[in-house]
Amino acid sequence: FQIALSHKSTSELHWHLTAEWGYVMAGSCRVNAVDQLGRNYLADVYPGDLWYFPQGIPHSIQGLNDTANGCEFLLVLDDGTFSEDSTFLLTDWMAHIPKEVLAKNFRVNASAFDHIPDRQLWMLPSAVPTESVTEANPVSPAGTVPLPFTFAASKAPATNVTGGSVKVIDSRTFNISKTIAVAEVTVVPGGIRELHWHPTQPEWTFYLEGNARVTVFASSANARTFDYQAGDIGYVPPTFGHYVENIGNTTMRYLEIFKTNIYEDISLNQWLALTPPELVKAHLQLDDETISLLQKVKPIVVGPGEWSCRSAFFNVRTNLALNLANDRAVNVYFAEIDDWVRKKCDEAKPQCSRCVGTSTPCVYEYIEHAGPGNKRIKRTKPARRSASELASRTSRNTSVRQLDDIAASLLFPPISEDSVVLAQSISPEAWGIGSDLTPSPLALAETADYPYMPQPSISPTPSQPLSDLSLTTLSSTSDHAWVASGVPYTYPIVPTVPSSISQVWSDYDESEIDEEGDPEGVGLILCTNPTMDKNVKDNALPFVLECYSRWAIARVYEPLKVVHAMRDQVIQQFASDNGRKRTIMIANVMKMFGQDLVIDGRGQFILNCLASDVQEKSIAFMKTPPLFDIAMDRRNAMRALDSVLEILALQVNTQPIAACIRSLDNAAPIFRRACIEPPGQPLNLPNIMMEHSLNLRHFATIDIVRSVSTGQPTYFRYEVPFSLELCEKMYQMQDVSGLQWLYGFPDQFVMLFAWIHCLCEKPGGNVSELIAWVESILPQIKIAVGEFGDPLLRIGRMVVQDCWRYAVRIYLYMVLGGANALDPRVMRVQKDFMRLLRGVKPARNPDAFLMSPIIIAGVATLKERDRHTLRRRMLNVRECAEPGTSGNDGMLQLEDVWARTKAEGRPAVWSDLGIAVRRVTGR
Q1: Record's CDD domains (predicted)?
Q2: Which of 129, 274, 312, 427 gets the highest tally of CB atoms within 10 A of its CB?
Q3: Are residues 190 and 254 in the same domain?
Q4: Do 257 and 203 fall into the same domain?
């Protein structure tokens, strides 16, 4: 069934003889149900999300208006003989029961049932819900259902392959769905869902987008081909071999649905690859090269076959050129082919395989790296463009220098190694932002193109912030050079000189990053040519997607989990004029960072302009009074919060802690306005962490982790009913509502940090018992580990998770227990942390995601050898070695703690970190 509900209607309360499975195609709706034990359930679902109600479970579906005016969804029942007569409707039943019986059953007067409808309603008008799910759901004495009836499949990661993606959801991920399994498949233009079959269950196919061609093989020389378009339904009996080909020019998306609890398929490619080669050769007369290309891992979706197409184009060109060399139309056709094949060298060793495959000389130029590091692989520039193309480009009208033009100009920087993104002649007014949003003179001075000059040695006092001082890596002879100066709380800070930072960076084997580049194929997914609107400049969006992919590879902890959602969001933002300008500016910052892991003065200028613009809009939003429609006001607040957090994600890696805190100051009141709790009431952290809105989870996570890693209080009081059961629930929902994929912070540990913080604010409990309880459950807390992606990266991510586990224990002992760094428990955990860190080779993964755990462990670190290890691991991360970044500020904080405690001859306590942060940031 394909059903549409308006936002002012609901389906009748009902149940079925069969199980019901639903897929949201558009809009949003609220589903509710009660099981046989009186446990209730209420949830909102969005496009791509699922629900499943077992046989006989009463439920209903209500349209919402937060994303559209109602919803459209697909209903699947697990019995092919199902009919509408198998649906039991509340009004139908009530109308056939005497009023006297109803009165006895409900213990009310019989007149209460005078207006019961005399026939079933199916769909009926209803008010749009204004309360959140938590507020609207009645509290049941039996509690809520143990297995959710919904699954946020829209947030679940897909398996990304060369020709598209596949997302399998069965009872292993959606536990309640015992009779229906589904695979959501996308196929790029020209690609195919590989030749395969399903061994035990028929496939019921629903086509969501695009055009498809399917050929089904039924044995005994029987085969038939079918064409499908969006909205069509297909059927393939069990064991029938088939493929699904995208014959359109847009991405094709469809659902493979099965009556089973576990999804199964058999790949022809994998079958042949795992069969003895001689046997395959005897059957199919294949040569050894072809057999060697068979894949032992299921391809699932296969790309359009770039190599064969490319060779065919060259053959066509050669043959036509012999006979039609003077034909103008043919020459135009050749030009189009040239434009299609003019690509970047694939950098294969020892020769470019693209050029060898086409028997053409390789004419691509290499780019020499100006930065440090002799191990970096040479990269190549794109092939030179034709004279006609260059002429057409220079003829474009460039007279108007408004924001749209400047944003567009950022797409075409000068072609040179030291090319700049933004010309110095551009004034702040030219951005269309206004003089009131111009960065301060200090900010502009910091972005000027002056060479870095080492500062003289300075001894700051407690009243003097350390933010203007630089940091150095200490040589082995200077590890013990910290001495008291005779002035209380006055310690030497050694400035950073360029050679010291360069030396540390050159020791970092960056060749691993460059050689592997993108081992998980994030760029391939993000940069796939999208279907663009005719009003969008077709040369801009691919550039922006490439910039976002560089950023995701460099700074997102598990980019594969969000790469599809990121791509869709970028395309959506790019569709509007205002969104396009902002997105182009953000993309340029991302490109700078993705190339060098730092941004230059012009990048800082762009980022400061973006931050100022967001700050102004945030202030304007908070000045507007809340809307009478509370739900609408919350949605507006979430949109405003999204803008702030998008810029904050850039600032965290490129600007000092003080700038990040300023952005958090702007975001805090917006976040509070978006929460459902009344003013003055603590915020329920579990509800926020499992909230559908990413922005609420994002801010809460940043707030708590910032508090932990700086010793500063959180912006708000959180209510945290921590338990092992809650951790298990978060583990089950990790791919749906977690935020670990972004920064690497395990969500369960974020909850535990907040719980410890709450206990410290409410003294009086038995601290020893609480610590013992946490020690007992900590090993039982399961943290999700991605099943897909590069194996080496997965190992690095496991190291990050274990480092966080040690960091939690240090925080527990030093904050809740009040222990110092000499406490035996603290020393034991710190030793385990260092053993784990030394057991892993320095590399960007995991080191780039270990800044916060290193700061926590660093407070408890006493030995100079251990401090030297932590210092080098942090400064090996390029953005941490750069003065004026959050990572570098974090290292300054540790140096301050180590210097003060050594000068005073005492072990560190947790409050030392807060003092260091105030000295570094000035606040």
Answers
A1: cupin_OxDC_C, GAL4
A2: 129
A3: yes
A4: yes
The verdict on 525 and 539 lying in the same domain is yes
Structure confidence by residue, pLDDT tens digits, 435-483: 333 332 223 223 333 222 233 333 333 334 443 333 333 333 333 333 2
Give the CA dihedral 562, 155, 651, 632, nearest 10 degrees. Answer: 150
HEC per residue, 841-882: CCCHHHHCCCHHHHHHHHHCCCCHHHHHHHHHHHHCCHHHHC
Do 435 and 365 lie in one domain? The reply is no
Pair 291, 184 in one domain = yes
Split at pLDDT 50, 70, 90, the class of 782 is confident
Q: Active-site residue numbers?
A: 256
What CATH number should be reported for the domain holding residue 69? 2.60.120.10
- Asked if residue 224 and residue 138 are part of one domain, the reply reads no
Annotated binding residues for Mn(2+): 14, 16, 20, 59, 196, 198, 203, 242
Is residue 491 a part of any domain in this protein?
no
Nearest to 298 by CA among 372, 197, 391: 197
Q: Is residue 346 part of a domain?
A: yes
Provide the pLDDT for residue 315: 40
Cα–Cα distance for residue pair 105/894, rounded to 1 Å: 70
Binding-site positions read: 14, 16, 20, 59, 196, 198, 203, 242
Q: Which tens digits make up the pLDDT trace of 64-93? A: 887 767 789 998 988 777 666 668 888 888
C-alpha–C-alpha distance, residues 707 and 747, integer Å: 15
Alpha-helical (H) ranges within 28-98 are: 90-94
Rg of the chain over Cα atoms, rounded to whole angstroms, equals: 31
d(CA 531, CA 250): 6
Is residue 792's pLDDT more than 70?
yes
Is the same domain home to 595 and 529? Answer: yes
Report the percent of the chain where pLDDT is more than 70: 72
The last residue of a domain, from among 640, 674, 708: 674
> With the CA atoms of 890, 892, 895 and 901 taken in that order, what torsion angle do they form, in degrees rounded to the nearest 10?
-90
Give me the domain span that covers residue 197. 156-302
Diameter of the chain measured on Cα atoms = 96
Q: What is the DSSP letter of 839?
A: T
Q: Dihedral, CA atoms, 786, 787, 789, 793, nearest 10 degrees?
A: 50
**Mean of the per-residue pLDDT values of the chain:** 76
Q: What is the mean pLDDT of residues 222-227?
A: 91
For residue 393, how many other CB atoms are within 10 A of its CB? Answer: 11
Question: What is the Cα–Cα distance from 141 to 351, expressed in whole angstroms?
Answer: 71
Q: How confident is the model at residue 111 (pLDDT cuts 50, 70, 90)?
A: confident
What pLDDT score was predicted for residue 517?
65
**617 and 684 part of one domain:** no
Total domains present in the chain: 6
- DSSP E strand stretches across 139-275: 150-151, 159-161, 164-169, 181-187, 192-197, 203-209, 211-217, 223-229, 233-236, 241-246, 252-258, 266-267
pLDDT at position 356, please? Answer: 57
DSSP codes, 637-700: HHHHHHHHHHHHHHHHHHS-HHHHHHHHHHHHHHHHHHSSSPTTSPEEHHHHHT-S-HHHHHHH
Could you say which of 135, 151, 167 is where a domain stops?
A: 151
pLDDT of residue 330: 35
